Amino acid sequence: MSETEFAMSLKDGDFNADEKVTQPHWYERYLQPCVAELLGTALFVFIGCVSVIENGESTGRLQPAFAHGLALGLTIAILGGISGGHFNPAVSLGAWLIGGLNIVLVLPYWVSQLTGGMLGAALAKAMTTETRFSNSTGAAFTSITSDAQIPSAIGGEIVMTFFLVLAVCMGAINQQTKSPLAPFCIGFTVTVDILAGGDVSGACMNPARAFGPAVVANYWDYQWVYWVGPMIAGLLVGAVIRLLLGDRKIRLFLK
């Protein structure tokens, strides 16, 4: 077909509108993902906080572990197609480092996630009794009670968050290993991390999950641990995938 015939065919409508390549609307590219991150983080933190507040010591770490894991998996399955389903600043950092997130969206994602964390924690406070909320310190992280615990807590947060961010990046972004089961693999990663390391640091793995309850309950002891550990893990995952585990598009060397 000549260029003239091709142009005439387009003019005459030989191609369906659905087949024409169009750029996404600016709302879908920039604002809608942030809305999804805010809502998803709020729902995740809400379920996580309520599970801790209502659990007390009746089932130990079992109830919070499954509540956090299932809530995260379901939320990613529902909203992941819009924003990638990060709901965690450390995950967004790792995703950006391997090319899975536009740098323009990194800061808006973080703001949305932290805002969602506060909203979820506030909703948890609103629906639970004052006594249970106070007894659990609003589901804020209280596992660290002395400076002697800091090295093991930071180490635990780095390793557990590394596992989580690796599950996200390899299961949902890296082409070689992407899986339709990624949402639930990621959720179960949170579950096993809490079951394994809940007594070490509380198994936060998410600065937004730590920040929201800290604001609502006004509990800031050792809050920085839950930022430093997860963000270091996000950096490490980005480096490992870029250097060793990524597909040809992501990997920097030996392509």
Automatic annotation (TrEMBL):
<dbReference type="GO" id="GO:0046691">
    <property type="term" value="C:intracellular canaliculus"/>
</dbReference>
<feature type="transmembrane region" description="Helical">
    <location>
        <begin position="153"/>
        <end position="173"/>
    </location>
</feature>
<keyword id="KW-1003">Cell membrane</keyword>
<keyword id="KW-0677">Repeat</keyword>
<keyword id="KW-0813">Transport</keyword>
<keyword id="KW-0812">Transmembrane</keyword>
<feature type="transmembrane region" description="Helical">
    <location>
        <begin position="224"/>
        <end position="245"/>
    </location>
</feature>
<dbReference type="GO" id="GO:0015250">
    <property type="term" value="F:water channel activity"/>
</dbReference>
<dbReference type="InterPro" id="IPR000425">
    <property type="entry name" value="MIP"/>
</dbReference>
<feature type="transmembrane region" description="Helical">
    <location>
        <begin position="93"/>
        <end position="111"/>
    </location>
</feature>
<dbReference type="GO" id="GO:0016323">
    <property type="term" value="C:basolateral plasma membrane"/>
</dbReference>
<dbReference type="InterPro" id="IPR023271">
    <property type="entry name" value="Aquaporin-like"/>
</dbReference>
<keyword id="KW-0325">Glycoprotein</keyword>
<dbReference type="GO" id="GO:0005743">
    <property type="term" value="C:mitochondrial inner membrane"/>
</dbReference>
<keyword id="KW-0472">Membrane</keyword>
<dbReference type="GO" id="GO:0019755">
    <property type="term" value="P:one-carbon compound transport"/>
</dbReference>
<keyword id="KW-0256">Endoplasmic reticulum</keyword>
<keyword id="KW-1133">Transmembrane helix</keyword>
<dbReference type="InterPro" id="IPR022357">
    <property type="entry name" value="MIP_CS"/>
</dbReference>
<comment type="similarity">
    <text>Belongs to the MIP/aquaporin (TC 1.A.8) family.</text>
</comment>
<dbReference type="Pfam" id="PF00230">
    <property type="entry name" value="MIP"/>
</dbReference>
<protein>
    <recommendedName>
        <fullName>Aquaporin-8</fullName>
    </recommendedName>
</protein>
<dbReference type="GO" id="GO:0072488">
    <property type="term" value="P:ammonium transmembrane transport"/>
</dbReference>
<keyword id="KW-0999">Mitochondrion inner membrane</keyword>
<dbReference type="GO" id="GO:0080170">
    <property type="term" value="P:hydrogen peroxide transmembrane transport"/>
</dbReference>
<keyword id="KW-0496">Mitochondrion</keyword>
<feature type="transmembrane region" description="Helical">
    <location>
        <begin position="65"/>
        <end position="87"/>
    </location>
</feature>
<keyword id="KW-0558">Oxidation</keyword>
<dbReference type="InterPro" id="IPR034294">
    <property type="entry name" value="Aquaporin_transptr"/>
</dbReference>
<dbReference type="GO" id="GO:0030868">
    <property type="term" value="C:smooth endoplasmic reticulum membrane"/>
</dbReference>
<dbReference type="InterPro" id="IPR023277">
    <property type="entry name" value="Aquaporin_8"/>
</dbReference>
<feature type="transmembrane region" description="Helical">
    <location>
        <begin position="30"/>
        <end position="53"/>
    </location>
</feature>
